[in-house]
Structure formats: structure tokens, C-alpha cells
Design goal:
Layout: H1 3-42, H2 48-70, H3 77-109, H4 114-141
Helix pairs in contact: 1-2, 2-3, 3-4
InterPro entries: DUF6533
Pfam family, one: DUF6533
Keywords: Membrane, Transmembrane, Transmembrane helix
Length: 150
């Protein structure tokens, strides 16, 4: 058997194991802070910030599940491509919700100054519009290749 093929199988197992370890750390971190979340977040009124927090907190579990599926050798190349595309957008959404919270906290620390709010909105647009355009280029260039298991 070709040595590069054997190396590819070995690397795919390493990646799958690293993803599994990341999921374990994510679950561990979740349970470390769950008590604080229940105390400070669950019994408060629903606001856009609270919705952003919960999306930021729980969407990564969906994302990690998706990457576990992508690591599966049972996917066809078409399924792999669909999951990789969805994964790329999910990670982007995860990051966006985190940045929404950071941006709102920054604005709040400036006593909700309207000028700072406008500057932050412009900054977010200047960052995210090119990022989304580039993401589309990346997604369009993705390809999945599979090799039969030895």
C-alpha cells in the first residue's frame, strides 16, 4: 500500500481524536459554569443580549456535533461537502454572536454613547462584510476526497 495513503489514514484518525478531545473539553467547561449560568441567566427576562448569549453558549455544541459527523468515514463526498459548508457557516455564526456580546459590552462601557455606537456598527460592518465574502470564496473552493480504508 502507498505510504502516503497510510499517512493520510493516520492523520485522519489523529484529527478525529483531537475533535473528540475538544468535545470532551467543551462539555467539561459547560458543566464547570452551568451553576453560575442557571443562577444569573436562566431566571432573568429575555433580552436580545440574553438571546445572543444563549446562542453563543449552545451553538458550539451543534458545531462540534457537525464536525464529528464530517470525521465519519461513512459520508459520501457530496455529504461531506454539505457538512463542511454548513460547518463553515456555523463557526462564522458562533463567532458573530460572541462578537455581538463583546461589541455591546464595549458600547455599554462607553455609557451607550451614540457616536461610539455608530463607530462600532461601522467597524463591525467593515470587518464582517469582507469576511463573509471571503467565506463564500472558501466554501466554493472546498472539495472532499475519500480513500477506501485499508
Amino acid at each position: 500500500m502507498d505510504s502516503s495513503l497510510i499517512e493520510a489514514f493516520r492523520n485522519s484518525r489523529i484529527v478525529a481524536n483531537a475533535d473528540l478531545a475538544a468535545i470532551a473539553l467543551q462539555v467539561y467547561d459547560y458543566f464547570l459554569t452551568l451553576q453560575l449560568e442557571v443562577r444569573w441567566m436562566w431566571n432573568t427576562i429575555w433580552t436580545p443580549v440574553k438571546v445572543s448569549y444563549f446562542l453563543m453558549r449552545y451553538l458550539p455544541f451543534v458545531t462540534m456535533t457537525m464536525i464529528s459527523v464530517v470525521d465519519s468515514p461513512r459520508l459520501t463526498p457530496e455529504e461531506c461537502l454539505r457538512f463542511n459548508n454548513a460547518y463553515a457557516y456555523m463557526v462564522t455564526i458562533d463567532i458573530a454572536f460572541s462578537e455581538v456580546i463583546l461589541t455591546l459590552r464595549t458600547w455599554a462601557s462607553w455609557r451607550r454613547d451614540g457616536r461610539i455606537g455608530i463607530a462600532l456598527i461601522l467597524f463591525v460592518l467593515c470587518i464582517w462584510v469582507p469576511a463573509l465574502v471571503n467565506l463564500q470564496y472558501v466554501v466554493d473552493s472546498l472539495a472532499c476526497e475519500f480513500y477506501a480504508s485499508p
